[in-house]
């Protein structure tokens, strides 16, 4: 009988230990999540400061060196999505659906207006001539 009571007590202790370990792991997980949020927000703020030329430390700037490459990939993909979405909506004043890349409407012969674009000096992406900032890198154009 004593051995059964000892086994039950050991199992209770083990259950309490498992509960305590689980509670501590939840505390660790929450603390790590908060730490990650701080790192993420700090990185975003530093990156924004770099883009505004407010950081002079070369080592810090170099940490963010390839982000503009990823920004460009994201920007290009978004442009492609917009092109696909606009493809469905481009129509002439006469109501005819325009074929992408055509210079004239197939129905009425009206010339299709071409957007005049400029190249950003910083990231070399094309932007609308009326834009003040580059949609890809955020730099001021004019």
What does this 3D model show about the protein?
This protein has helices spanning 2-51, 58-63, 67-89; strands at 117-119, 126-128. With 142 residues, the protein is mainly alpha-helical. The protein has two domains: 2-60, no CATH class; 66-112, no CATH class. The protein has three helices and two strands. A two-stranded antiparallel sheet has the order 1-2. This is Double zinc ribbon family protein. It comes from Paraclostridium sordellii.
Q: Helical residue percent?
A: 55-70%
Rg over CA atoms: 30 Å
Poorly predicted runs are none
SSE pattern, N- to C-terminal: HHHEE
Overall 3D geometry? Answer: elongated
What structural class results from the helix and strand content? mainly alpha
Protein name: Double zinc ribbon family protein
Organism: Paraclostridium sordellii (Clostridium sordellii)
What's the short version?
This protein has helices at residues 2-51, 58-63, 67-89, and strands at 117-119, 126-128. The chain has 142 residues and is mainly α.
